[in-house]
């Protein structure tokens, strides 16, 4: 008998279809036909209750393929272990019709007291009790070797559901705390960035002010330098012209005197050589004798006469030297490379030198120059302060960039990864001890598997690890599933030196429906009592 299992009552119903027209006018006949239809529909194995109505014979005891009504079959051909319909609808309770990707075939398991389910038709009557799907054992209905264990399966499921729901709730609390911590960390970064930005703004304003002061000091120094130029013009040009005039006049006077002396000497020389000593002229004799002594005692070279600068010129020079004493050192010409600079430096030194002739005349100048704070010191201080502030601004901008990068970096949904930065998880799996540092690195014992590269959804990526022997650099992907604690579960190597980790973590937790939790349920067959 086919597995739709017609009862005696059903057979009787089919038989009386021959007299259906005679009974059409009779109420009991209509009632009997209705009962027959219901009975037929309720007992087609492998079909869920809502679709039993599709498996109803017509008044002639015939049935049509669901997707091709032109194909007519006897009702007894349903589940006769022979595939008659192209869509396989005539064999819902057998594996006679092939299971394909394009046309999958499923068998309905009622699983009373638990959850109804569907199993692939090729698993029917294969001698295996697929309790994880059909806990009622209906997938092995031919042998009857798989008793109904749905009550036991339900107990395991209920225990799993309660434990898993509790785990998820606890993990969500942990995640909530992590999100709160991450938000506070980001807020602190924002505050730090704002604070450092204000400091930079203040420093830049101070820097602008100092540069303005320095520019003013330099302008003043420039004016003093112009004053120095004026002094130099007067000191070198004006007084030089006066000196040149005086020297020229003196030289003219000397030359004139020399000419007169030369003429006189010539006259006396002629007298010395040509006078007649027989003339007894005592005056002439005395002159000749004196000139002879003059000639014999005359030195080979004569010393140039000493002359003095007029007092008015010295007074003017003293006034200019007072201005020289006031000039800052930084605007003086370099004494090492400039003759003028060396002269001015020597002059300033002499003005303050104890015992020098100039001290008595210019001591007051030296005193004023020694007591007045040098303008060059102010400039040096300004330059030093500007340099320090510029260095400080540069350092603060580097610090600001770190804060900005930290704020803008991808730390996952709700920035939650900020809260676990620096946290390490250790777990020995197989022969190796694995160490995972969030946002840091991943190690297999002491071998670098990879450094943190980024996050996407509930996965972390690590790359640029140690190079494998005759292979690529190591890398890893860490997929996280919801868990109250961070815990590595497993590791695999799908490709050479490319690792895949599975890990529990509250980072991956979301509110879960019972249906979603149920997907993770695994039946422990060892606990079943059969």
From TrEMBL:
Residues 168-274 form a coiled coil. InterPro entries: Gtb1-like (IPR039794), Man6P_isomerase_rcpt-bd_dom_sf (IPR009011), MRH_dom (IPR044865), PRKCSH (IPR036607), PRKCSH_N (IPR028146). Residues 350-373 are annotated as: Disordered. Residues 364-373 have a biased composition (Basic and acidic residues). Keywords: Coiled coil, Disulfide bond, Endoplasmic reticulum, Kinase, Signal, Transferase. GO terms for molecular function: kinase activity. GO terms for cellular component: glucosidase II complex. Residues 389-511 form the MRH domain. The keyword Signal applies. PROSITE patterns: MRH. PANTHER family: GLUCOSIDASE 2 SUBUNIT BETA, N-LINKED OLIGOSACCHARIDE PROCESSING. This is Glucosidase 2 subunit beta. It comes from Metschnikowia aff. pulcherrima.
